[in-house]
Design brief:
Structural class: mainly alpha
Shape: globular
Helix content: over 70%
Number of strands: 6
Distance between the termini: 76 Å
Number of helices: 11
Strand order of the largest sheet: 1-2-3
Length: 376
């Protein structure tokens, strides 16, 4: 017969075993709630951060000024004749812009898109079912851009052909015909280009194309891609803590400045209908990142940048904008860059060095944005 002491000892042992099993059960539940790998903590919204709202509001004005300066420099340099800026210097700036666009597409857009759309915070059915979604979205954006570009060119070619047929029926003795370059000039306006020209579409041995319209559509598309990207960058800066903001603020200022230089050079090159039109495009870009920061400040207490919705939206938009900028960047490098090089370097002393300088400008723009991408 067991004594009361033995019974007490047995009950204590049972209680200890029960406590061990209960703790193990709780551990299993916590593991299941966190996704089994501890990802629940990294996917949840951080609440214990040091966040100073006046500091973030100050960042809005710093980024706004940097964006305006970057966008305005190429535009003012083109229109203010008193500055007497050499054409080669303007082309050098445009070449830097090409490098900025390409680096921005690959390092500042496509890479963050890959990180967002492969995050462990997204459903496994999405991340493991097909791992190339970011590249697919970028590819589709580039293909759609090519179709859009072709459709636009077809439309303006049709308009120019129709206009040309009307003008040739009423041509007078003041019209000039240049047989050496196969260019027809009516009242000083160029109508057709030879089939040896770069770009355009071939119709009956001549190319009917409105170069001004092409440059305008390039400026609009570049504006869209960079602006959407800047909003998401600003949103991220708006919700980051004080330590992260201090590190990001310098990088984002240079980021917006160089993107502004790239965009401003394309806006000035497009020769838009009015200076107000140019100012509008410059303003839209300049306020895009500050708007994103402002939204971030307003929703910092509720938004979760590691949540599924935010990661999906940011990842898809970054991938699409990356495809748009890649299409535009390579288009500029293969078409505009050789034309600008010939206009600014051909027939001049030290022609080879001047051309090499423009190549260096592309490398410089790409290198600077790549370096900034290390911190942003």
């Amino acid at each position: 017969m067991s004594t009361s002491k033995e019974i007490f000892i047995n009950l204590s042992d049972c209680q200890n075993e029960y406590d061990i099993l209960f703790n193990k059960y709780n551990d299993i539940l916590r593991s299941l709630n966190s996704g089994g790998d501890g990802s629940g903590d990294e996917c949840s919204r951080e609440t214990d951060i040091v966040y100073t709202k006046p500091l973030h509001i100050g960042a809005i004005f710093i980024i706004l000024v940097a964006s305006f300066i970057g966008t305005g420099l190429p535009i003012f340099a083109t229109h203010i004749k008193k500055l007497k800026i050499p054409n080669y210097t303007i082309v050098f700036g445009k070449s830097i812009g090409i490098g900025v666009i390409l680096a921005c597409a690959l390092i500042h857009m496509l890479q963050p898109s890959v990180e967002s759309l492969s995050s462990s915070c997204l459903p496994e059915s999405f991340t493991e079912g097909y791992e190339a979604y970011p590249y697919l979205f970028a590819l589709l954006a580039g293909i759609v851009m090519q179709f859009f570009d072709f459709s636009f060119l077809t439309y303006i070619t049709y308009k120019n052909e129709k206009k040309h047929s009307l003008e040739t029926s009423t041509i007078d003795s003041n019209d000039k015909i240049s047989s050496s370059s196969n260019i027809v000039i009516t009242n000083g306006n160029e109508i057709t280009h030879s089939c040896n020209d770069v770009g355009g579409h071939l119709h009956g041995g001549s190319i009917l194309i409105d170069v001004k319209s092409l440059k305008t559509i390039e400026a609009y598309l570049l504006e869209f891609g960079i602006t959407m990207h800047s909003i998401f960058i600003g949103l991220t800066v708006g919700v980051v803590d004080d330590t992260g903001l201090r590190a990001l603020l310098v990088a984002l200022s240079f980021h917006q400045f160089f993107e502004g230089v790239a965009l401003g050079s394309r806006i000035s090159d497009a020769k838009l209908t009015s200076h107000w039109h140019e100012a509008l495009l410059a303003t839209i870009f300049s306020i895009s990142a500050p708007i994103g920061i402002g939204i971030g400040i307003g929703v910092v207490s509720s938004i979760n940048v590691n949540g599924e919705t935010f990661l999906f939206v940011q990842g898809i938009f970054d991938a699409v904008c990356s495809g748009i900028l890649l299409y535009i960047g390579f288009n500029l490098m293969f078409k505009d860059f050789p034309d600008d090089m010939n206009k600014s370097c051909a027939g001049k002393k030290h022609q080879f060095i001047l051309k090499l300088g423009l190549f260096f400008a592309i490398w410089l723009g790409a290198g600077l944005m790549s370096f900034i991408g290390k911190y942003l």
